[in-house]
Amino acid sequence: MKATLLDGKTLARQIRQEVAAEVAELVRQGVTPHLSVVIVGDDPASRIYVGSKGKACKKTGIASNTIQLPETTSQKELLEIVGNLNADESVHGILVQLPLPSGIDSDAVVCAIDPSKDVDGFTPENIGKLLLGTPYTVACTPAGIVELLDRNAVPVEGADVVIVGRSNIVGKPLAAILMQKTAGRNCTVTVCHSRTKDIARYTRSADIVVAALGKPCFLKTDMVKPGSVIVDVGINRVEDPSTPKGYRLVGDADFEALSDIASFITPVPGGVGPLTVAMLLKNTVKVARLAKCGQ
Ligand SMILES: NC(=O)c1ccc[n+]([C@@H]2O[C@H](COP(=O)([O-])OP(=O)(O)OC[C@H]3O[C@@H](n4cnc5c(N)ncnc54)[C@H](OP(=O)(O)O)[C@@H]3O)[C@@H](O)[C@H]2O)c1
Question: What CATH number belongs to 28-116?
Fold first, then answer.
């Protein structure tokens, strides 16, 4: 039996419509949510991401501005800019696009963001709140993954979940969400990484496998049990001379083969990816609403 496709593109569109309705309501109350995005240097991928975030804001009625800084920007200068955005009451959300150029300590910059304006959910305070079970903003990609599972009625409650990848932006916060002692979560989560001795030993027994490591087609059919749920976070470029661009995007899972044995599976592109921006919009509206009325 073919797996059910978890369609992130359609869900992201639906979430954007919901966000637009919330924005319209806030605007009626006199508040236009405002996101400031800071980008340092000329990394092409970062520019594309920042561009798509700006467009998505515009479409939903969120005001946004991008502060484009040269590669030569010092950490001190960047921290000053973040400080100014923290102090600016017209700015509800702040996002510093990562990665930052070498020479700038990303952790120091993320730590400098006012947690109440942290739309990425990356500040130590917001990560801590998530771990304690009282989340404020939650990192967008993991938040998008659980939204995708929940809205497709994928059984998550009490599931055995294996996450391959322990990054601060995907693996760790996702583990924290899924292990929450709350209805619909209560998962038993195992996090694998590059030093895990035998990853297949864990993935084979999982109800849900999340591949978030950045290795094309890493997860194969012999690594999962039939009927499991496959969430593919990876975005990898592989050469493909038959395409106009000379490459195509693939995930961390062998999509074609796994589709034959999984119960649910996310495609790449069109699975988890579109939800990341949708959840950013949600977080921006949330921080704006809380700044206005504390609810
Ligand atoms: N869809 C989206 O919106 C979205 C958002 C973010 C990221 N991504 C994609 O998701 C992937 C992961 O991103 P990331 O930022 O989390 O990456 P990252 O910071 O590079 O972390 C990768 C993680 O995978 C682990 N890993 C690497 N190679 C491995 C291997 N051979 N076996 C087991 N574990 C291995 C690493 O282990 P160590 O900790 O031991 O080094 C690390 O924990 C990338 O393809 C990225 O493009 C997609």
Answer: 3.40.50.10860
Residue nearest (by alpha carbon) to ligand 1 atom 21: 167
Residues 6+ apart with CB under 8 A from 235: 214, 249, 251, 268, 269, 273
Q: Is the pLDDT of residue 93 over 80?
A: yes
Of 118, 120, 207, 232, which one is the catalytic site residue? 120
Alpha carbon of 88 to ligand 1 centroid (Å): 34
Geometric angle at alpha carbon 70, from 69 and 75, rounded to 5°: 75
pLDDT given at position 6: 98
Domain locations in the chain as residue ranges:
28-116, 140-273
Please give the share of the chain, as a percent, with pLDDT higher than 90: 98
Residue 293's pLDDT is what? 73
**What is the mean predicted confidence (pLDDT) over 270-283?**
97
Reference 87, options 63, 107, 112; nearest CA is 112
Q: What is the mean pLDDT of residues 56-72?
A: 97
Q: Ligand 1: which atom is nearest the Cα of residue 268? A: 1
- Pick among 3.40.50.2300, 3.40.50.720, 3.60.21.10, 2.40.37.10: CATH of 140-273: 3.40.50.720
Same fold, 28-116 and 140-273: yes
CB atoms within 10 A of CB 201: 13
User: pLDDT digits over 102-125, tens only?
Assistant: 999 999 999 999 999 999 999 999
Query: What local confidence, expressed as pLDDT, does residue 294 receive?
Result: 64
Among protein residues, the one with the nearest Cα to ligand 1's atom 42 is 165
Give the residue among 66, 58, 72 at the shortest CA–CA distance from 94.
66
* Residue whose CA lies nearest to ligand 1 atom number 47: 235
Upstream peptide bond of 269 is cis (omega within 30 degrees of 0)? yes
Q: Is 120 a catalytic residue?
A: yes
Q: What is the CA radius of gyration of the chain?
A: 19
